[in-house]
Amino acid sequence: MRRPLVAGNWKMNGSREMTEILVSGIGSGLPESDAVDVVVCPPFVYLDLCSATAGGTPIAMGAQDLDIHEPGAFTGAIAADMLVDIGCEFVILGHSERRSLYAESDADVGVKASVAAAKGLTPIICVGETREERESNVTADVVCRQLDAVIDGAGIDIFPRALVAYEPVWAIGTGLTATDEQAQEVHSLIRQRIADASGQAAEGTRILYGGSVKPDNAAGLFSQPDIDGGLIGGASLKAADFLGIIEAAIP
Ligand code: PEP
Predict the structure, then answer these.
(1) How many domains does the chain have?
(2) Catalytically active residues, by annotation
(3) Is the pLDDT of residue 52 over 90?
(4) Are residues 93 and 52 located together in one domain of the fold?
(5) Which of 5, 157, 186, 237 could form a disulfide with 229 if both were Cys (CB 3.0 to 4.6 A apart)?
(6) pTM for this one?
(7) Which of 237, 241, 244 is nearest to 10 (CA)?
(8) Are residues 170 and 81 in the same domain?
(9) Mean pLDDT to the nearest integer, 157-174
(10) Which residues fall within 8 angstroms of residue 69, CB to CB, at 6 or more apart?
């Protein structure tokens, strides 16, 4: 059985004060059950404080991106080695905001996944279709194309350690959520696509759902057979909401 995981993507939100309050609030409110892996992904500049605040709790930490190069003359960039050094175990890759606002291609995400895995980080690889793509009935094509680029670029062996997050772009930050059935349909497709390369990898890979997950819709989504937890944006910025979603992921 796959262990559920709930990750919070803070995006470009936070402050030192918020990091301390939020991480200690999550840490002190975690359910007694330790059946769910919990990850928080603050902006780079708050990772160190997050790590110090989360110390002694089961909260793991992730970054929201990485640079593929070895440390050196890459002004403004953050290397995978630095993320490991500061205590990150996870890294979100290919978030739709990075794809649309920073022109990250499918191939870029594949290379990043390869570097992350080689450096010992666990990639959380985001895939998902826009509203126009869903309305044009090309959801499967888009999601498979994004996933194939990762399998081609990083190899199937990064799974089942790597995670996939299905995040329909039309559901991110909009308050619109895929129905449980819509999400399950795409999750099952993703698992099948991984299975085409390796059945064992597919069986173990955790596939998260992301897109306006809240405490009141999380349980329905997480009860689907191929949904193994969530990647949470807005609701990860409030300890009570994030904790409610973690509770909903307990099997
Ligand atoms: C996200 O950005 O990864 C996300 C899922 O955001 P939200 O939960 O706010 O829709």
Answers:
(1) 2
(2) 95, 167
(3) yes
(4) no
(5) 5
(6) 0.97
(7) 237
(8) yes
(9) 97
(10) 77, 79
